[in-house]
Design brief:
CATH superfamily of one domain in chain B: MetI-like
Number of strands of chain A: 0
CATH superfamily of chain A: MetI-like
Number of domains of chain A: 1
Largest sheet of chain A: none
Shape of chain B: globular
Order of helices and strands of chain A: HHHHHHHHHHHHHHH
Helix content of chain B: over 70%
Structural class of chain B: mainly alpha
CATH class of one domain in chain B: Mainly Alpha
CATH topology of one domain in chain B: MetI-like fold
Oligomer: heterodimer
CATH topology of chain A: MetI-like fold
Structural class of chain A: mainly alpha
Distance between the termini of chain A: 33 Å
CATH architecture of one domain in chain B: Orthogonal Bundle
Number of strands of chain B: 0
Number of helices of chain A: 15
Strand content of chain A: under 5%
Distance between the termini of chain B: 26 Å
Chain lengths: 290, 273
């Protein structure tokens, strides 16, 4: 029996490395193509680090490629705003629903997962009258400078990231006993804001972090909505740049992919560390089966 | 709770309603069916057919390749670097790819691209390289680069739900590896597999960024046509046409997602998530 086990184990290992190697090659080739393309010398002859040197020189990028610079700044702003609005919207609502109105849980889940079924391109069609209306009011109250800001797109991005952040936060809420924690805090005299800020949030740290990381990655990669609303963000700038300066745009593309990878890779360590770890998971499965 | 519902109403429900209702409203605000006539145009029907074929092919191919990869990864240590590496990479490609992915392909397969020169060395001619920009060749290949990763992400939990005890039980009862896959693991995974394939289908159907960045001439698939109609300043009444096309997409996606929901319920009977 143990011999058979070992054989299966061995066969699995061969299979694993075989498949992973093949697929890695499949995925690595175009990335390698990008690297090759960006290190090409003038006229396609020889090697040169010129493209990367240009890109590393932030001052030169800001003056030579204003669109790109603007796109990066906008995307970072959008990411921060989207994370803030998403957290403000989801964490209190989901906690409250779990504590007080468990009946509404299905509805909230349905609404949060709905964006998965509404393609972004369809959302653009429906959002354009909303944005016309919103911009009108904003102009009325704050003037054109604010109403024309690209940052308002973050309101639409929150909808796009809802399904992903909902799942992350839901997993976090599931792994802690919200009711007991909040009742204990309330009986010690804490008000709801204190419960939220000092009890629930610290316990949800890793869930909130992973929801935020996912949001950042998604916002930095968003193209459809920004492009069709004729706004500039990282991806749109990259797209426009691709038409004039191919090498730089490919280099930016490669950097953005690597950067997003690093974010997600870091996240995979955050998600499993601390309270979201093996112990809580084991406790949870025991509770569910009981 | 109120802010949440207010927000989602304004930014999610109303936009969807705008599309659905707007598709039936004429320029004068009266109900009409004339917008829907755009859906009978040969150009739209062709784009729809191409969209459906593209999504179906990449969904099935992506699902098969992705599930193999998912199984391979699931046999590794759950906290090991390999798994973290593969899932992070797949997360990037599945969600983030878009424009950068299209660039990767033009850089690799362009006239002087790395892969073009490698292929030429082993005797495969790339031709004019124009195949890359055709919907049923290049676009399909590029789509696989986010379909396979998405399959891994969606399907991995299902494969990891397979309990080693089930395999041991099969062995104790005298079953071979083939029996295990044919009679135990296969039937358990099938609903998840089909469900994930449907998800991949809707994902390919709604993808816009990669196609936009890769295809610069013509609009072979529906999302690009909607984009064209939206940004068209030449023709009046294109907004309504965009809504009608968007409605057609909603209908297709809603059908597929309903099927998905049914399968997902069935899949969760055995797999605790």
């Amino acid at each position: 029996m143990s011999g058979q086990r070992a054989r299966i184990r061995r066969r699995q290992r061969t299979f694993r490395w075989g498949v992973v190697t093949l697929v890695s090659a499949f995925f690595a080739l175009p990335l390698l193509g990008m690297l090759d393309f960006t290190t090409r010398g003038p006229g396609g002859v020889g090697r040169s680090g010129q493209t990367w040197r240009t890109l590393a020189d932030f001052g030169a990028v800001a003056t030579d490629y204003p669109t790109l610079n603007d796109g990066v700044v906008t995307s970072v702003g959008l990411a921060v705003l989207t994370v803030a609005v998403m957290l403000l919207l989801l964490v209190p609502t989901m906690t409250w629903v779990r504590l007080r109105v468990p009946r509404a849980q299905r509805l909230v889940e349905f609404v949060c997962l709905l964006p998965l079924t509404v393609p972004a391109i369809v959302l653009v069609v429906g959002l354009s009258p909303i944005y016309t209306w919103l911009t009108g009011w904003l102009r009325y109250f704050f003037g054109t400078a604010i109403s024309e800001s690209t940052l308002w797109l973050s309101l639409a991005y929150v909808v796009l990231v809802l399904p992903y952040s909902y799942r992350a936060i839901d997993a976090g809420l599931r792994s802690i006993d919200v009711r007991t924690l909040s009742e204990a805090a309330r009986s010690l005299g804490a008000g709801w804001p204190t419960v939220m800020w000092r009890i629930i949030l610290p316990n949800l740290r890793s869930a909130v972090l992973s929801a935020s990381f996912l949001t950042v990655a998604l916002v930095l990669g968003e193209f459809t909505i920004a492009n069709l609303f004729s706004r500039n963000n990282l991806q749109v700038a990259m797209y426009l740049l691709g038409k004039s300066d191919a090498q730089i745009s490919v280099a930016v593309g490669l950097v953005s992919l690597v950067f997003a990878f690093l974010i997600l890779f870091a996240m995979s360590f955050v998600g499993s560390a601390g309270q979201g770890g093996a112990l809580t998971r084991r406790l949870r499965s025991r509770k569910e089966s009981a | 709770m109120l802010p949440f519902f207010a927000y989602t109403t304004v930014f999610l429900l109303i936009p969807t309603l705008v599309v659905v209702v707007g598709a039936f409203l004429g320029a004068d605000g009266r109900p009409t069916l004339s917008n829907l006539s755009a859906l009978g145009e040969p150009s739209f029907l062709k784009a729809m057919r191409q969209s459906l074929v593209l999504s179906a092919v990449t969904a099935v191919a992506g699902a098969v390749l992705g599930s193999l990869l998912a199984y391979a990864v699931s046999t590794a240590s759950p906290t090991g670097v390999l798994k973290r590496f593969v899932t992070s990479l797949c997360g990037v490609l599945a969600q983030f790819g878009g424009v950068a992915l299209a660039f990767a392909f033009t850089a690799s397969f362009g006239a002087t691209g790395l892969l073009t020169s490698w292929l030429a060395r082993v005797g495969v001619e790339n031709g004019s390289g124009l195949w890359l920009y055709e919907w049923d060749k290049g676009l399909m290949l590029v789509y696989l680069y986010f379909q396979v990763p998405l399959m891994l992400i969606v399907f991995l939990p299902a494969v990891e739900g397979l309990k080693p005890q089930w395999r041991e039980a099969t062995e104790t009862l005298g079953g071979t590896t083939w029996t295990y896959w044919r009679r135990v693991a296969g039937p358990i995974l099938l609903p998840s597999f089909i469900g994930a394939t449907l998800l991949l289908f809707t994902n390919a159907l709604s993808a816009y960024a990669t196609a936009r960045a890769l295809v610069s001439q013509g609009s072979p698939i529906v999302p690009l046509q909607i984009g064209d109609a939206l940004s068209s300043e030449v023709l009046l009444g294109q907004q309504a046409v965009a809504k009608a096309m968007a409605l057609a997409m909603i209908v297709v996606v809603a059908l597929v997602m309903t099927l998905y929901a049914v399968l997902d319920r069935r899949a969760s009977r055995w797999l605790v998530r």
